[in-house]
Design a protein that fits this description.
Elements (H helix, E strand, L loop, with lengths): L4 E2 L9 H10 L18 H18 L5 E6 L2 H13 L5 E6 L2 H12 L3 E7 L23 E4 L1 E2 L4 E2 L11 E4 L16 E5 L10 E6 L16 H6 L9 H17 L1 H21 L17 E4 L4 H13 L2 E2 L10 E4 L6 H17 L4
Parallel strand pairs: 1-12, 3-4, 3-5, 5-8, 8-9
Antiparallel strand pairs: 2-10, 6-7, 9-10, 11-13
Helix pairs in contact: 1-6, 2-6, 3-4, 6-7, 7-9
The structure holds pyridoxal-5'-phosphate.
Length: 363
């Protein structure tokens, strides 16, 4: 076995102990005589898995009792449509902050559906090199919610604060930073996240929604997108993404065994600091993100020369450091260092960066 350090932004690395346990249980789960993939989602064995996954996540994130936890299909992008359809009826209008591509897509999706939505803040003119500063007076007082993307996967930025929205529900896309550090769930009306960045394989989408927000769904909306229906059926209105939920359960167990989200944060800060400190200490590479908006999960950098950037990514891949090419829309490099990336992976990356800089002097 020769596993590489995989810096992919998603789908991305999973913890090795989780993969090993899944491999051990792949063909025969416990005494069930079958793989989790082969189980009816209504079977007692599977019901135990999904219930345990929810219980572990509640413990891990300290989710208050008045929030529902939903394990859905469709990816985070489906929630771009589901969010307005479930919530806008509260007041008839909603506000968005656009801090990168995904929040831009969420905003456009709501616009496309003909809703009264307003972009109240964007950092587009600065190439999204930081997140907006949002204050309460910027939000329309009768907005049904404010939507933000908490960690901007493509640009490598993150909100260093939770915007104060008063009694207006804050709806946040946490796809690329979920369970990377403790977060006060009670500050949000809705949190959603695709699983494939930091939680499980692709195919599962997590929605955490405050119960009082379940009553505003459009009457004509597709049942599959309606949070209330999913909540009333414990995510089993139809077949849930069974296998990713099972892997998510193993991931939650792995994090809890290490010491929970406080410990995860400590490990993630250590990895990110190592890389940012190196970036700040030299002038071959440049980190475009403003310091107070730096992501713990996605670290972007450039050499300033597109050809060198390309060479960097391809030589790094040959050295066992995979998927360091930046998003196709922005170029440069991006190292995604989610929970499963070991400290040694970041050390190996920095060693490679030093060698590359020494061997490829700029003209
Ligand atoms: C990857 C990502 C998405 C898109 O997720 P899908 O599951 O592919 O729909 C949305 N938002 C953020 C922040 C992401 O990182």
């Amino acid at each position: 076995m020769n596993r590489v350090y995989n810096f992919s932004a998603g789908p991305s690395m999973l913890p090795l102990p989780v993969l090993e346990q899944a491999a051990n249980e792949m063909v025969c789960y416990g005494t069930s005589g079958m793989s989790v993939m082969e189980m009816s989602h209504r079977s007692p064995d599977y019901e135990a898995i999904i219930k345990e996954a929810e219980a572990l996540l509640r413990k891990l994130m300290n989710i208050p009792d008045n929030y529902k936890v939903l394990f859905l299909q469709g990816g985070a992008s489906t929630q771009f449509s589901a969010v307005p359809m479930n919530l806008i009826k509260r007041t008839g209008k909603a506000d968005y902050a656009v801090s990168g591509q995904f929040s831009g897509k969420a905003f456009k999706e709501a616009q496309k559906m003909g809703y009264d939505v307003k972009c109240i803040a964007t950092t587009k003119d600065d190439n999204f090199d930081h997140v907006p500063t949002i204050t309460r007076d910027m939000i329309r007082p009768d907005a049904a919610y404010l939507h933000i993307c908490f960690n901007n996967t493509i640009y490598g930025t993150k909100y260093g604060y939770i915007p104060d929205t008063g009694d207006i529900p804050l709806v946040a896309d946490l796809s690329s930073c979920i369970i990377s550090e403790p977060i006060d769930v009670s500050k949000f009306g809705v949190i959603y996240a695709g699983a494939q960045k930091n939680m499980a394989p692709a195919g599962m989408t997590l929605v955490i929604v405050r119960e009082d927000l379940l009553d505003y769904a459009e009457e004509t909306m597709p049942t599959m997108l309606e949070w209330k229906t999913m909540a009333e059926n414990d995510s089993m209105y139809n077949t849930p993404p069974c296998y990713p939920i099972y892997i998510a359960k193993l991931v939650y167990e792995w994090i809890l065994s290490l010491g929970g989200l406080e410990k995860m944060k400590e490990m993630n800060v250590a990895k990110a600091n190592l890389l940012y400190n190196y970036l700040d200490s030299q002038d071959y590479y440049f980190a475009p993100v403003k310091k107070d908006s730096r992501s713990l999960m996605n670290v972007t950098f450039v050499t300033g020369d597109a050809d060198l950037d390309k060479k960097f990514a391809s030589e790094a891949a040959k050295a066992g450091l995979k998927n360091l090419k930046g998003h196709r829309s922005v170029g440069g490099m991006r190292a995604s260092i989610y929970n499963a990336m070991p400290y040694a992976g970041v050390e190996a990356l920095i060693a490679f960066m030093k060698d590359f800089a020494a061997n490829n002097p700029k003209a």
